[in-house]
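Figure caption, in words: inputs first, then the predicted bound structure.
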Amino acid sequence: MTAVRVWDPLVRIFHWSLVAGFTANALFNDPEGKAHEVIGLFVLGLVAVRILWGFVGTRHARFADFPPSVPASLGQLGEMATGRKHIHKGHSPLGALMIYNLLATMIVIGATGYMMTTLAFFGVGWVEEAHEVAVSWAEFLVVAHIAAVFLESRRLGINLPKSMLTGYKHIP
Ligand code: HEM
Ligand code: HEM
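Bound structure (protoporphyrin IX containing FE present):
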């Protein structure tokens, strides 16, 4: 086993704060309450910080380290089908597609949520609908994300959830 430092504290704090904030707003609090707005704007702020960090952060936190790539993602699917293993220190190609999708969806949720609180868009049907559809899409993505994390952990023999807690990947 080799321990490789992959996720800096900002990435880890971002990740688990996003999990807490998204889960609170999607499942637990009253969407008409003040806490919903505060937590939702906090999530939007987290995403803004993470995007900045994607340009100036540590090596594996940078977007340049995990560019969206369809050919590389198809390659990863091929590896999953054939049992070949290629260990990615940072995010894998499929992981990258999921991350861009999650970040973009969080922005749509936050922006439409904020719009509902403005005079110009209060009570406008399509804004409310866009908020709800984006939340459902994010919920679907989160389920797929968690399933993928566990499947890839098993296939590669690396405890990926633990790496998001400690910052280290223990690579066989
Ligand atoms: C993590 C981000 C967020 C999530 C997961 C989320 C989730 C939700 C959900 C599940 C609903 C209920 C939709 C329904 O009626 O079925 C809702 C409604 C709403 N959300 Fe959000 N939201 C988020 C961010 C925000 C933000 C940033 C704001 C405003 C600053 C906001 C304002 C609202 C408002 C005004 C409603 C409508 C409440 C009503 O029925 O009057 N949301 N949101
Ligand atoms: C609301 C639920 C969740 C959301 C919105 C979410 C979102 C994200 C995002 C945006 C990233 C990219 C991190 C970055 O580079 O900044 C990520 C990565 C990751 N998440 Fe989650 N996540 C959620 C739940 C979970 C859970 C429950 C686990 C653990 C079981 C988990 C494990 C991971 C791991 C291991 C990575 C890194 C994947 C890799 O090795 O490339 N996530 N997640």
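DSSP finds six helices and two strands in the chain.
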